[in-house]
């Protein structure tokens, strides 16, 4: 396995102009320990039917990525104020892969060995801002990366689940099914995503990968309750409250 480690030195005596941000972490199912979150990578249009509903041709696209700040991560069960500057706020349910070992330029055959565990996530999107950015050929940042943009369930260690290659993935809003698919429907499977991403970044323990969403994405409004589920992993839940 190709591995490269970066090293930073921190000194307890260092003085900061203001308090540095806290460590961002997620609960671990069945454990008092927590999983520290380093970076969040997201795979775009990784289910063919969803790619088509977004106006893309999945047969012609290699995997591509965008990022969310770990500071914008919130846990399952959060009540999130409807975000600012949007009138078209969308849900996207996703398998989240947690990385537990350094990985750089690894092969697909090695990818499973760096998986620490899995979770269920919501990639929340200000779709109107994304559409405007696409039309102007500008980055998607403000549509995908904002407070509460990533919602993730407690993580389940891979030792408890085994390597996941298939399983139902669904999302309901107020009890009504909106999204339904299977992990086996991914265009680029998890091993391929990890191997490809490891050529662009030095993956490190604590990195999360949100692996794309099945078809059926759509708008949500104040008062809606979202429940995303993946077979064997439990669920992620989000309630939308009034904007602040």
TrEMBL record:
<dbReference type="InterPro" id="IPR036663">
    <property type="entry name" value="Fumarylacetoacetase_C_sf"/>
</dbReference>
<keyword id="KW-0479">Metal-binding</keyword>
<feature type="domain" description="Fumarylacetoacetase-like C-terminal">
    <location>
        <begin position="40"/>
        <end position="239"/>
    </location>
</feature>
<dbReference type="InterPro" id="IPR011234">
    <property type="entry name" value="Fumarylacetoacetase-like_C"/>
</dbReference>
<protein>
    <submittedName>
        <fullName>Fumarylacetoacetase</fullName>
    </submittedName>
</protein>
<dbReference type="Pfam" id="PF01557">
    <property type="entry name" value="FAA_hydrolase"/>
</dbReference>
<dbReference type="GO" id="GO:0046872">
    <property type="term" value="F:metal ion binding"/>
</dbReference>
<dbReference type="GO" id="GO:0018773">
    <property type="term" value="F:acetylpyruvate hydrolase activity"/>
</dbReference>
């Amino acid at each position: 396995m190709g591995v490269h480690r970066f090293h930073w030195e921190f000194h307890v005596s260092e003085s900061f102009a203001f308090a540095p941000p806290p460590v961002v972490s997620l609960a671990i199912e069945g454990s008092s320990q927590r999983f520290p979150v380093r970076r969040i990578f997201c795979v775009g249009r990784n289910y063919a039917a969803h790619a088509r509903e977004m106006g893309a041709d999945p047969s012609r696209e290699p995997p591509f990525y965008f990022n969310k700040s770990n500071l914008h991560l919130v846990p399952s069960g959060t009540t999130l104020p409807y975000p600012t500057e949007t009138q078209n706020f969308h849900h996207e349910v996703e398998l989240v892969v947690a990385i537990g070992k350094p990985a750089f330029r690894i092969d697909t055959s090695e990818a499973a060995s760096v998986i620490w565990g899995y979770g269920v996530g919501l990639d929340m999107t200000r779709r109107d801002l994304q559409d405007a950015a696409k039309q102007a050929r500008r980055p998607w940042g403000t549509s995908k990366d904002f407070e509460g943009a990533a919602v993730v369930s407690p993580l389940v260690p891979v030792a408890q689940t085994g390597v996941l290659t298939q399983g139902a993935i669904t999302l309901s809003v107020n009890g009504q099914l909106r999204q339904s698919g299977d992990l086996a429907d991914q265009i680029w499977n998890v091993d391929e995503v990890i191997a490809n991403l490891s050529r662009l970044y030095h993956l490190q323990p604590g990195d999360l990968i949100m692996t794309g969403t099945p078809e059926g994405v759509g708008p949500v409004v104040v008062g809606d309750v979202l429940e995303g589920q993946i077979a064997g992993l439990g669920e992620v839940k989000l309630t939308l409250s009034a904007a602040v």
